[in-house]
Amino acid sequence: MARIKWIEDADATGSVASAFEQIRATSQSGSVADILRTMSLRPDFMTAINEASSLHFGDGALTRAQHEMIASYVAALNRCHY
After folding, report:
1. What is the mean pLDDT of the chain?
2. Rounded distance between C-alpha atoms, residue 35 and residue 11, angstroms
3. In the chain, what are the domain boundaries?
4. The pTM is what?
5. Residues 64/57, Cβ–Cβ less than 8 Å
6. CA distances to 17, 19, 37, 79, 82 from 73, in Å
7. For residue 35, how many C-alpha atoms fall within 13 Å in the half-sphere facing its CB?
8. Quick count: other Cβ atoms within 10 Å of Cβ 12?
9. Is the Cβ–Cβ distance between 35 and 67 less than 8 Å?
10. What is residue 76's predicted lDDT score, i.e. its pLDDT?
11. Cys-Cys crosslink for 43: which of 19, 21, 23, 39, Cβ 3.0 to 4.6 Å?
12. Where are the alpha helices (DSSP H) in the chain?
């Protein structure tokens, strides 16, 4: 169970619902990742982080898969669920 309060899909209204819809539209999985959902109390911040994440995880010097692998490894080292 998460220790950070967030807004569930069924409870999302207004700007949160709009942000969730925008995130789902650009997500490879078609869902809102839990790490983004932790910011749902601040939809403006959640949207900005999602946009920055798109730049960070986009192909460049490293592929998206390599970025994800590094992020997963660091999360495991820190025993972080997200």
Report:
1. 89
2. 18
3. 13-77
4. 0.71
5. yes
6. 31, 28, 21, 10, 11
7. 10
8. 19
9. no
10. 93
11. 19
12. 14-26, 34-37, 43-57, 64-77
